[in-house]
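tokens incoming
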């Protein structure tokens, strides 16, 4: 009963379940298994992007809406926390105020965009969202008194989330527990709750209607569902979860700027993660975000090792030059799409259904 209440949607693939468990265990124990600031930062980024990608999958994978404004909501959440922490003080109340203000602004933008644009065809809606996102990024860069302009905003967090805070006098399992680790586990706990909420939403009757609209909007309209209303609600929900993900990202970085949360590169990365993980699976967000962020963070280090190993062969050394890590990231993406056309999660579920 509790499982059905939670989502009623298991991975439906043994291999997928094993991969998900391995990722969850690695993220849960990251501060102890992988000590060091870089590893902890990568793990925190994976957690945040799981929610960001899952919220976009609600739009693209479950509703069939292509939007390029998702990073705008992500940035609004990040700026909400940053501006509130700078203007008020470094307290939990400031963070809550920033999250609340960010949610209000995001929902207003999402409602306006949705009601004004969701009646048009998909390609025109995508272009409208792209224009709105570009205009918003320009506006944020120009409002330097409020947003810090291109330089962004540095801000302080509550005392217990600062690196100097030491709740324990002795190390735990050889690791000194400080404010950064507490921040990590706070973000992890919130991300788990948000992901379970998204999983519950897509497996509810509301989520089934979204899937019906994705498959055939005309038929869904014919049997009595107001497709514009459902698409607008999906847009609002996705914007809200993206805003919360942005707030968590700013809380981790203690900084936010246009390139940090509003750049079009982030939007492209979200699309890649959704495709790699598998659209319309939700579990694909965990797989896609983990694989992409890990490759983005450590591929260059791996190429350094290979480059040093083949340094005697000029052609190979040139091919594995660490500065060419983006080329190899592109090759890995092409291979993943070729061998997993429905994403890793989607492909594993297909294989599990075969007799």
């Amino acid at each position: 009963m509790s499982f059905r209440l939670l989502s009623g949607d298991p991975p439906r693939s043994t291999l997928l379940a094993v991969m998900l468990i391995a990722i969850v265990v690695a993220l849960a124990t990251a501060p102890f298994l992988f000590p060091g600031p870089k590893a902890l930062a990568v793990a925190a980024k994976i957690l945040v992007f799981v929610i960001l990608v899952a919220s976009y999958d609600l739009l693209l994978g479950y509703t069939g809406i292509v939007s390029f404004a998702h990073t705008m909501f992500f940035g609004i959440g990040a700026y909400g926390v940053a501006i509130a922490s700078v203007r008020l003080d470094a307290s939990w109340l400031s963070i809550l105020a920033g999250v609340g203000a960010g949610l209000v602004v995001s929902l207003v933008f999402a409602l306006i965009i949705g009601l004004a644009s969701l009646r048009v065809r998909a390609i025109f809606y995508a272009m409208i969202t792209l224009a709105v996102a570009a205009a918003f990024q320009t506006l944020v860069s120009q409002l330097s008194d409020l947003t810090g302009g291109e330089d962004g905003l540095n801000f302080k967090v509550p005392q217990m989330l600062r690196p100097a805070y030491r709740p324990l006098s002795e190390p735990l399992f050889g690791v000194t527990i400080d404010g950064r680790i507490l921040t990590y586990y706070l973000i992890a706990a919130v991300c788990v709750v948000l992901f379970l909420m998204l999983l519950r939403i897509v497996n509810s009757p509301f989520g089934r209607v979204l899937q019906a609209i994705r498959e055939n909007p005309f038929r869904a309209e014919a049997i009595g569902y107001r497709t514009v209303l459902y698409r607008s609600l999906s847009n609002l929900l996705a914007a809200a979860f993206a805003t919360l993900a942005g707030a968590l990202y700013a809380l981790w970085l203690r900084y936010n700027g246009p390139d940090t949360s509003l750049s079009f590169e982030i939007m492209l990365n979200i699309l890649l993660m959704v495709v790699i993980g598998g659209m319309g699976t939700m579990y694909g967000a965990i797989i896609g975000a983990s694989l992409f962020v890990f490759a983005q963070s450590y591929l260059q280090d791996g190429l350094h090792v290979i480059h040093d190993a083949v340094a005697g062969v000029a052609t190979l050394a040139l091919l594995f030059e660490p500065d060419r890590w983006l080329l190899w990231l592109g090759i890995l993406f092409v291979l993943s799409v070729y061998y997993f056309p429905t994403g890793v999660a989607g492909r594993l579920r297909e294989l599990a259904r075969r007799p």
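note: The CA atoms of residues 1 and 286 lie 25 Å apart.
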